[in-house]
Amino acid sequence: MARAYIGLGSNQGEPVDNIRKALELMHAAEGITVKAVSSLYLTEPVGYEDQPWFYNCVAEIGTELSPQQLLEVLQEIENRLGRVRNVMWGPRTIDLDILLYDRCRIETRDLTVPHPRMEERAFVMVPLAEIAGNAVFPDGRTIDEATNLLINQKKYICIQQKIW
To answer: Which secondary structure element, helix H or strand E, spans residue 144, and what is its range?
Structure first.
């Protein structure tokens, strides 16, 4: 069984409920088991800034799915929860991103793992370090090592200890 880390984010509708529903749907999907979920963080939008702040967390999953199959399941969940792709980095009911999949490097037309730009974003790295600080990137660095470079940004607020 592979270990993967999924970034979850929402800033439309009822963001906390959207994230909970996404976690429930992931856990109920065949071939996926949610193993751990970080605290919930309220974070500034990146890129397109004229929108509400995001609620973010990271989930560790065990999966029997290939990376491509996992991507397809996550996109089905996004669609089921009303995800609309109008503006790059824009508002969304739910965003589910594969951050890491074991220690694999993947570059296809549809999927890049490790997730591009994740190491630049405290809203990804801080919750990831919370549940998987000793996890390792394909190049051998730990999540904690990469996260320490971002901690001074302070563009996040931990708002709730546990949602799962």
So the answer is: helix 143-148
The model's pTM is: 0.89
Angstrom distance (rounded) from CA 38 to CA 107: 27
pLDDT tens digits, 55-99: 999 999 999 999 999 999 999 999 999 877 776 666 889 999 999
| Cα 94 to Cα 150: distance, rounded to the nearest angstrom | 24
- Alpha-carbon distance 79 to 65, whole Å? 19
- Judge whether 97 counts as a catalytic residue: yes
Query: Residue 84's domain is classified under what CATH number?
Result: 3.30.70.560
- Domain containing 137: what range? 2-160
Q: Which is catalytic among the residues 50, 85, 95, 109?
A: 95
The structure tokens listed for 19 are: 């994230």
What's the longest Cα–Cα distance across the chain?
41
95 flagged as catalytic: yes
Helix (H, G, I), strand (E, B) or coil at 93: coil
Q: Identify the active-site residue in 50, 85, 97, 109.
A: 97
Q: How many domains does the chain have?
A: 1
